[in-house]
Each structure stands twice: as C-alpha cells, then as structure tokens.
Amino acid sequence: MKRAALVASVLVLAIPASARAEPVLLISIDGLRPGDVLEAGKRGLSIPNLRRFVTQGAHATGVTGVLPTLTYPSHVTLMAGVSPATHGVVANNSFDPTGINQGGWYWYAQTVKTPMLWEAATKAGLSTGNIHWPVSVAAKGVTWNLPQIWRTGHPDDALLLDALATPGLKAELEAKVGQAYAMGIDESLAGDQNRARFATALIGAHKPDFLTVYFAALDHEEHASAPGSPEANAVLEKIDAIIGEVVAAEMKAHPDAVIALVSDHGFEATHTAINLFRPFIDAGLITVGRDGKVASWLAMPWIAGGSAAIMLSRPDDQALAMRVKALLDRLAANPANGIAMVADKAAIAARGGNPQASFAVNLKPGFVTDIYRGASAPVLSHSSVKGMHGYFPGPANLQATLLLMGKGVAAGKDLGLVDMRAIAPTLAKVMGASLPDAERPPLELAD
Fold this sequence. Notes:
This protein is α/β, with parallel strands linked by helices. It folds into 2 domains: 19-267 and 395-431, Alkaline Phosphatase, subunit A (3-Layer(aba) Sandwich); 272-384.
C-alpha cells in the first residue's frame, strides 16, 4: 500500500503543474469586431451571451491578425498557431490566373503544412468534431466532421458534402435536427441558425472533447451593408442567441469545458474599388483573348479584398520584376488609387505573408481590390461592397476578437492585445495537447 501510494505521488509530481485536460469548444464568428462586444452598450447592442464572456471570463482588447486579414488564412492560423507563410494557406481562393478553377477556394486541409488543433487533440487521446470550419475537408484528426465546401449552390453540393463528411454523420444529425443541413454556400443568418442546431445535436449525440463551430452571417452582412450598420448589428444580436444555445449544450455535456470564442478579422468601411488588372493589361503584362478571358500573363494580381499579392510567371526574372515594380510605383504615386504601400518580398516575409508573391499591394481604408472584369473595365469605380478586410494586419479596425470562459479561466481578466498565433497553443495547453510548431507561447488564462 505504501509502495502504491509512493508510486502514485511520484506520478502526480511528474505531471507539470501547468498541464490541463479540459474539453474545449471553439466558436468563430466571422468578422466580429472586439469593440462590438467590449463596447456593446455604447453601440446599442443587446448581446448578453457574448457579454457573459467579458464578465465571467477573459478577453483580449484586440487580436492582431495575419497577412492578409482574410477568412481562410486566419482560420488556419487560429488552428495551427503559425503564420500563412508557414501553414501555406495564403488567401481565400487558390491562385488561378486563367480562371480554370471556377473560383475554387482553399477548402482542402491537405494544403496545410503544419499540424492543426484537431490532430493535436487526437494525439492527446481526445475525440474531436467540426461544424463548417474553413479549410477542414479531410482534416487530420477530426472524429466527426461536417467540413465547409461548396461549388455552385446546386443540390449536388449536398451530395459532395455527403461524400466528404464523416460517413453517415450528416444523415444522423439531419434525423435528430429534423431538417436538412445548410448548403455550404449559404452564408445567411438562417444558415448559421441551422448549423447551430447541428452543433448542439452533435454535442448531444457524441460529446466531442474538442469541437469547432463556424458562423458566417455577420461577415456577409458587414460586406453588404457596412460594419456597424443597423443590419449588421441586427444579425449579430441574432447570432448572440445561437451562441447561447451552443454554449448551453456544451456546458451540459462538459461542465468543466473551456469555451473560446474568436473571430478572424475586423472590418473597414469601403467606397472605392481599384481594378489592378487594367494597368497590367495596358502594360502588356496580361494578354486577353477575343473571348475576354486571360490568355497569358507575365505578372498577375492575386486579389485579397484590401490587398493583393503580385505574382510573376518568372519569379527569378529581375528585368520582369523591375518592370512590375515600376508599374506599381506609378500606381501608388497617384493618391486617387488608394495604395498605402507596395511591399517587396522582404517586407512580405517580415509579416508572415505569401512567400510566392514578388510584391504585395496594401490599400488605404475605404479602398478595395476589384475582381477581373475584362480589358475595358475602368481602373477606379464605386465599390460594390460597403465593408472589406484583407488588408495588412495592424490597424485597430482590422483587429479580431478573443473571448474565453470556463474552468480555470479568470473572471474579468484582460489579456491585452493578443497575437493571433498565440490562440492555438493556448487551447492546446488547455486540452493537455501540444502544438510544437506554434510561433508564439500560450497565453496565461488564470489569475
């Protein structure tokens, strides 16, 4: 008996004092600005479930994001703890200069070069689940997976998801919820409400130790009607209600859980679109065929909302690089074009951005990059959206959100300004897992 007690005490002492093994629910509200939660009263927002995190848990005053401040690069960083240069998802859409991929996105987790939290949790012996998280198709370590993917919105998209989800999971949860699962292309409030029902059903049926859930409707409305608009605020208040439902389900399944609520970026209001393709066409760097499509290219903008990576067909061709740099400098010299900065490879690397890009153009607040619209489209036009992100990280308006509450999280703790790369290792530590590739140490959540 004494020997058994001695062995047990040695084993306890061998466990690091900081080690934890709590379940984690990670929720993302795309485009949620920290001020909308921290200053909800001043902004006329009724969001009691989100405000509960502030009073009962820890919060960041803001989260400095990645380059570019887009949904897909950010969500992989939130799961991997590294910059886009390291994990490899450097944009929302894959680079497709001649349009053969029909607007394809970085849906597939095979493109991620570093481990993500699902894999880390599985290695720690935990079960995992996912509802609609970006870049989750065929993700390693997901026990129950309903990944985010779409093609056209045709009913065949549901068959595609059936083929890519955990076998039988979609049908199982549809039977429990009593309705069909939302189409991947659906970014409406109704789509978010549907996915919340499926998240609560997954929690009730399987109780995953680590679950990721993603909501898109706020971002969709902020693009359409501007950040902070009455329409966007109304959507956020509705999302607050479904957050309450999902959190309640999690706390019923796992009373000792830690709930982390994040966003991927903030927002800038917009008024003007710049068509970077037109100057490249006029300079002979892009050749357009009779059908109006790109026939060939020497240099091509890879647009990202508030910024654009500039790709060269021959990255080592110094003469081509100088020619492109001269064009970009001329565009930046005209204040009407709204270009804040032309970054070279060194400046991109310093920010953890796309290592394939030879240059990157960052726009001023209010300006947004335009999609390709043919050789005759004007350089400047009125923006078709009223809000945008995708700019270089740093400005307050682009900061993302981090809220945490649950076992071991100090009430009312202000974490200050947080680097997005610190979030994944923090959650790994809570779960008793490890992300050794993370580029920042975990945050301290206790007093």
